[in-house]
Every structure is written in structure tokens, then in C-alpha cells.
Amino acid sequence: MTVNLVDVTMRDGNQSLWGATGLNTAHMLQAAALTERCGFRAVDFTSSSHMAVAVRYFQNNPWERIRRMRAAMPKTSLQFITTGLRFIAWQQADPDFMRLVYRRLQVNGIRRFVMLDPMHEAPAVIEAARIIKQEGGAEVMAALTFTLSEVHDDAFNASFAKALMASPDIDLFYLKDPSGLMSVDRARTLVPAVKAVIGDRELEIHAHNTLGLGEMSSLEAAKLGISAIHVGVGPGGDGSSLPEAQRMVANL
Q1: Is the sign of the CA dihedral 63, 69, 75, 81 positive or negative?
Q2: 33, 39, 91, 124: which is deepest, by most CB within 10 A?
Q3: CB contact at 8 A, 101 and 52
């Protein structure tokens, strides 16, 4: 069995630990060659919020940042995360505007998209995935966002995944645990429940280490056939970020 790693340092580690202001374009370019050599499945690279921070705090051109990193890391997929039909502002955007956004992101170098809907509205995820495929054909990964409640049990997550399976434009899935609440016991039931629904499509895990559970739930998920674990490199890992990469490799 092969378990890949997805590096989150530049986007989620940067956001979780440093409010997205810890790394500017120059910092990222300095790390590009080393990151490329690591052979990550993908690099969680940017979002519309990160693009806004690039302009407001650093006066960096976020489109140039994507282009230059694409050139510096030609073999590694750069990932963009979004809540569907939204770009920089928190209000929902017009679908035609989002079509333009998704087209330009792919033209500039984004090769992988994470589609996240906080309300678990399957039609919204499916529509965004369809537009992305039409505007460039990048890989689309749908998020199954984990939380603890009487409603959000394994059956709920499996049902949401099943609804998304109706779309041929969604290539793979990931369990997204932004609060780091997933226990080892819960991973043991949740991973098989989702895998039973999605068949041969890949399933990754993105579990924050806020409470120290992210590392353990990710390792348990690896035993259950997860295809990739999301990690942060060195100071970009642990805490409210994702498990640290080198330690994760040693434990795997």
C-alpha cells in the first residue's frame, strides 16, 4: 500500500499558525526547489483569502505568485481551496464571474482544487466542479467536513459522499477535520464508511493537530487505506496546523 503526503505549509500551515501573513512570495520561492524534490502528492498552496492577504499585507501580485511557483515546481500540483462560488469577498459570486476566476487560476498554474461547502450542499459542490472541468480540466477534490454533533455521524458523511458521487467531475475526496476533533476510534468507523461509498476514488485525510489528535487519526486512517495524509513541514506543522511531516514519515 502506498500512502502519499500533501504539504500544507504554504497555505494552511501559514494560515493556521501565522494568520496567512507568515510567508510572502519570496519566502515561497526560496522553498520551491526543496519542496519539489520531496515528491508530494500536491501542495496546498493558496485560496482566495490568501490572494487577498498577498495584496493587502505584502503588495504581492497573487497571480504572479502562482505563475512563478508553477514555473519553479513544474512536477507538483498546486492546490487551491474554495467554498465554491466565492472569491475573496464572503458573499456568493455570480457563476459567470466564478467561471472566469476558475479559468484564470488554471491558466496561471493551479492544477488541483478543493471544493468545500460548509452547509454540505451537494449541488453547489457539483456545479463548481463542473465549471472547473469545463474551464481547464484540473483535478477536483471534494471535502467531507468533520465535526461532532448528533447529526454529523458516519452515515451523514457517507450520504454526502454518495450524493457527490453523482458527479463525474469530482476526482477524489478528503476528510477535512479543521478543528482537530477526530479521534482514533472515530477514524476507525468513518474511513471505512466513506470508502464503501466512493469505491475506487481516492480518499485523503486533512486532520489538524490542535488537540494532538490529528497525528493519531491520520496514522489510523493510513491503516484503513487512506491514499494521502496532509502534513506541515517543520515549523509549519503541529499546533493548529497539520501534523509535522518528518515525524509523520517516521511514524508511518
Answers
A1: negative
A2: 124
A3: no
Q: How far apart are CA 161 and CA 142, in angstroms?
A: 8
What does the block give as the cell for 227? 491514499
Residue 89's pLDDT band, with cuts at 50, 70 and 90, is low
Average pLDDT over residues 109-123: 93
Whether 52 contacts 85, CB under 8 Å: no
Which region, left, alpha or beta, applies to residue 120 given φ > 0 means left and ψ of -120 to 50 means alpha? left
Residue 47: CA atoms inside 13 Å, Cβ hemisphere, count? 22
pLDDT of amino acid 83: 84
Q: Which amino acid is at 83?
A: T
What does the CA dihedral 30, 35, 37, 42 come to, rounded to 10 degrees?
Answer: -140
* Whether the predicted model's global pTM rises above the 0.85 cut: yes
Condensed to tens digits (0 to 9), the pLDDT of residues 38-70 reads 999 999 999 988 999 999 999 999 999 999 999
Separation CA 99–CA 84 (nearest Å): 11
The residue to which cell 464508511 is assigned: 193
Rounded to whole angstroms, the Cα distance separating 139 from 176 reads 17
Read off the C-alpha cell for 170. Answer: 469530482
